[in-house]
Amino acid sequence: MRYPSVDVIIPTYKPDHTFSVILRRLSEQKYPVSNILIINTEEKYWDPELIRDIPRADVFHISKEQFDHGATRNMGAGFSTADYIVFMTQDAIPKDKNLIRKLLEPFAYPLVKVSYARQLPRKDCKIIEGFSRSFNYPAESIVKTEEDITTQGIKALFCSDVCACYEREFHKSMGGFEEPCIFNEDMIFAAKTLKKGYSVAYAADARVIHSHNYTTMQQFHRNFDNGVSQAMHPEVFAKVSPEGEGFHMVMDTAAYLNSIGRSYMIPQLIWQTAFKYAGFSMGKLYDILPSGMVRRLSMNKNFWSYSNIEDE
Length: 312
Prior knowledge:
- The chain has 312 residues and is α/β, with parallel strands linked by helices.
- It has helices at 17-27, 69-78, 99-104, 127-136, 148-152, 168-173, 185-195, 216-232, 234-237, 243-259, 266-284, 291-297, 303-306, and strands spanning 6-12, 35-41, 57-62, 84-88, 93-94, 112-120, 142-144, 163-167, 199-209.
- It is globular, with a radius of gyration of 19 Å.
């Protein structure tokens, strides 16, 4: 009996020691990885020693101007002939040796075409960000269908290429990820999957360690790009406003801070939320803002050159 093959695709830019840990843990998975395909931005920042002792790992270099969240991942998918492709980021560390096996388990259901992993906070993760991990990535698995959009709203479309698995032929038949794509290539693909009558699975037992301690301004820039993405794809996001889900997360976070005796952090939560919302709101208005301002406000500044938005 032939077991389905799995390739892992990882875009990188200036990878550090964390990436070497990820590669080692991928090579130790109980369900074997066929190939690790690395799409690295800027060869001058690449250290060949990172993959010297990693079997079946290949690196392909692109320039910073070529990077795009959708196109770069599609490039990696094009190099694969595996049955399944797992997209990861260079800072998502497999929690254990069962990551790949647990990502594949939901595909036992024929309608499941995508699965994504639970994200656990790093040891250095700050309290507010740590709670957001548990809010967005709970301990219970779920299989989502188009019907869930009515009850769950934007949460039904949620998926994260920090660590997500796709049936390769299905991914290809759908045209891959949107490109160019400044943000949310995973959610846009998930939405199309649901609308085709298929399912997206959240595999809570497939776990990676991943979190960020973004500054307030970094959160602003990141949410600006999120707003841009949602404005560019009204066919996906127009009927699933994220504000309600965001409000619930803020209220739950405030209740959590109060419950652990950290109510003095609630003003900080409100401040951070205000910057996130301001960034998101301005991003949704990107098409009426001066092009120079858009580039300054965006986290992914090279996107605006790649997509020739300014020439439209």
